[in-house]
């Protein structure tokens, strides 16, 4: 029954959940501990995500805070919030004591404000408490908000042998030693070395002789996106965080950046799909409605706008009815082209590969959309020919569509660029926003241009 | 002029590029080396990305292969391909000698098939050559294709002291030591320990006494998505790769997984935006057309489908013209709702949080879209009232739209689920595919239902 985690993937089965539920029901603490201790805390968190709140709280109160603190951090955010509500400030403080400062600060930051101070005051380890308080002060989405205070630091004047001895002390508190940071006597970051360098070196060498004096670092106020970019570009697994005076404050590890990257990607994807806020398939109907309705209402207004425009052309319904049959097609093409253009530009901006002048970009986009538009226009003329449509009408429709495509591509390209120049996240210009504005603009242009060609 | 990389972000300036170009033009090798050696290889790659091909090749041939091999790996893929075309098989082999096995195999895999064997035969280090050949044999997107052969391995029977001595040898070849893998005499992976554990332990302790005997590993044939999921879930920075017999074959590090995650996210985003293939803003017009036109043609066919449907209702143009004004709105709503639903489900599937039965999901989606649809329908009725539209018509439009929204949500939800169950990437069901099919379906339903209500 018990799944072996080593060498085989953990699988969350109904049997396992039932087994845990049964243990909780029977208050069979010994068996419960035996079962759960087989698993990694991330797996236990997955189990708890499936249990009733009451049962989850029971498990959290039962197991050692050394493990439960890690389990809590891995829980689904909504569930963690509910579980923490059922713990006393003292109990939360005990969990916090076990966590690294970065996770500890995150856990406290999620609490309601009135509880935060209470929990902090119950943390017994004074240094830990001060460090957490420091971290809580940094603004969201800055390097400071993600860093941990735990790191291994040595002074440039130490010897390798002395260093190894002292590191034995420091390293016990640090889960993973990536780099050892070298500071001068003013605590300024001046270099780094790896454990490997230390092991390979001779015992009486001085740190300053074996340390690398180029060391990447980020400022404590840098945006997380910048941190992620630097770490990905230089393949770093940890990066030290300094203040404006180059004083070493903390470090950020790559596993936290992986989470940031995943969240960013999901957010962009959702924004492009017309979802506001961070929703998941298993959220409540209310939360999902809140994420979905706003963009739909925007889309509705766009659609009502086109109703208005078309109503204005009601008088030509008898003479050229076919124009009206093509409006969904025109709207769709304008929307699709706009989304394509904006997606490429938004990604290009994110990856810093939108180069060259606005003029050359304009030319490129016009050229590109002319090619696409021309091929599509030919297909429309062919279609018109097959269904025996009036040739002038077909031509008018094809040419207008082509123009709509060019304009839609330009809107899709330049709206994100302009937003970005003004310091607004260009990602909001993808998806429904571009689709909707291009829908209206496209239909308007379509009627105006067709009118010029057919003559109405 | 020279930018300091330490403590300040590298910035690619026009002046810098000009300076490098000038050095190349004057064949001032000494100055060129001086300038470029100031920078990290990832920065030099950014500079080369901007140079003419000829100049880039000049720089690559000038600098030491120890550096240029890394620069090459950081170059834009298209540019790397062109540069490698200008190097002899011998020169490429020299670059490959400097790279870790995983990067070496990647570089060779990108070469045209006829050159691959030639380059491999020119690699002087026999072990390196054999390891690269082994890596090239693994299928794309498997753990084997991403892993490196470089790792630090110790036998369970060694002592800590002996281990440290031997590691000094192995570690020189391994850029970063994350974990030390413990194997038994059959080379089977049986545990791991960190350098930290080793440093903290006493010299005469046996490895088997201090090593952790639970060790996460992946199978060499596991999909990269699985590897990424395991590493992110358990916050691993490296994971050993084993074969079916648990024999240790290699290891995958988190920096490579970061790249995989970024690529996956960009691919999904592009797929949702209706782009095929991996394109960038700075690709050629031809490449961009190839990525954009296919989905646009699909959209066009969808649009032509709705032309057909509407043509079938031409006879009611005189009696209820307003229906035709609403078709772009209906198509937009059907498309938007479909994209929202599919995006949530596709992400849910990727994150393994789509739980519960199909029946409960059906109920939830119907409930959700009824709520959204109801609010939107009210707005449509209000709009009709304001513009003085016939009440029956407004009602018919509102009710039909609501039904279209429900159906569109169901299509958006269940198409990805069904694709996933059949082993097809559900991400293809987002974006243009869902939009287009929902457009046609929506307009068809709209006319049928309005007809039933109004009576035509």
Number of beta strands of chain A: 6
Mean pLDDT of chain A: 88
Helix segment tally of chain A: 22
What is the radius of gyration of chain A? 30 Å
Keywords (chains A, B): CBS domain, Cell membrane, Magnesium, Membrane, Metal-binding, Transmembrane, Transmembrane helix, Transport
Domain CBS (chains A, B): 147-208, 210-267
Subunit structure (chains A, B): Homodimer.
Membrane topology (chains A, B): Multi-pass membrane protein
Features:
homodimer, 456 residues, mainly alpha, MgtE N-terminal fold, CBS-domain, Tetracycline Repressor, domain 2, 3 domains, 3-stranded mixed sheet, elongated, disordered N terminus
Provide a concise account of the structure shown.
Helices cover 65% and strands 6% of the residues of chain A. By secondary structure, the first copy, chain A, is mainly α.
Give your account of this protein's structure.
Two copies of one chain form a homodimer. Chain A is mostly helical and 456 residues long. Chain A has helices spanning 14-25, 29-37, 41-50, 53-62, 65-74, 77-85, 89-98, 101-109, 113-121, 126-137, 143-146, 160-171, 195-200, 207-210, 224-233, 254-272, 285-312, 322-325, 327-350, 358-386, 391-421, 432-455, and strands at 152-155, 180-183, 189-193, 218-219, 238-242, 248-253. The first copy, chain A, has three domains: 14-142, MgtE N-terminal fold; 152-254, CBS-domain; 285-455, Tetracycline Repressor, domain 2 (Orthogonal Bundle), CATH 1.10.357.20. Chain A has a three-stranded mixed β-sheet with strand order 1-2-3. In chain A, strands 4-5-6 form a three-stranded mixed β-sheet. The longest helix of chain A has 31 residues, at 391-421. Mean pLDDT of chain A is 88; it is low at 1-7. The interface between A and B is large, with 123 and 125 residues.
